[in-house]
Design goal:
The chain has helices spanning 11-40, 54-57, 62-68, 89-102, 113-120, 140-152, and strands spanning 70-76, 79-84, 105-110. By secondary structure, it is an alpha+beta fold. Strand 2 (79-84), helix 4 and strand 3 form a beta-alpha-beta unit.
């Protein structure tokens, strides 16, 4: 018999192989990101698996984060760290704004697209703050309505 039949690998082995290949691709992309960080003169960090607190993430609106490809990933006392895949003047403006608003030292790090996506997904589980109103809320329309009632009555 010249040819032996080859069995397909078990599903578990196939899944392990796929996972390993995906892991290798991520490592390659992170290595490229490290090189880009050096090119831009920025520190580099990989955010996959990095614990990002809601207090840090909520420093930037989801829309701003997505548009500028920047995420706040660290906030402790007067220190804030941003990660970006796109170092730009807009990111520098965000850094300066946060430094002023938060009275903090803000550093910008270069991150890979994979790191950005991993961090950006956390916006989906970020609680949306709700405004709490104590007492009564009187807006301009209420005041106008009251003044009309007084004139008529």
């Amino acid at each position: 018999m010249l040819f032996r039949s080859v069995k397909a690998p078990p599903a578990a082995a196939q899944a392990a192989l796929t996972d390993k290949m995906s892991e290798i691709k991520i490592r390659e992309k992170e290595k490229i990101a490290q090189e880009m960080a050096q090119k831009f003169g920025l520190p580099y960090i990989a955010l996959r698996g990095f614990p990002i607190a809601p207090e840090a993430l909520s420093l930037l609106k989801k829309s701003e984060s997505q548009q500028q490809q920047v995420v706040a990933f660290f906030k402790v006392k007067e220190q804030i760290r941003l990660g970006t895949t796109n170092p730009s003047e807009e990111v520098e403006q965000i850094r300066a704004r946060l430094a002023e608003e938060q009275h903090a030292m803000v550093d910008v790090y270069y991150i890979s697209e994979d790191s950005f996506q991993a961090a950006f997904k956390l916006y989906d589980v970020l609680p949306i703050p709700k405004e709490v109103i104590y007492g009564y809320r009187i807006d301009e329309n209420d005041l106008l309505k009251r003044s009309e009632e007084r004139r008529v009555g």
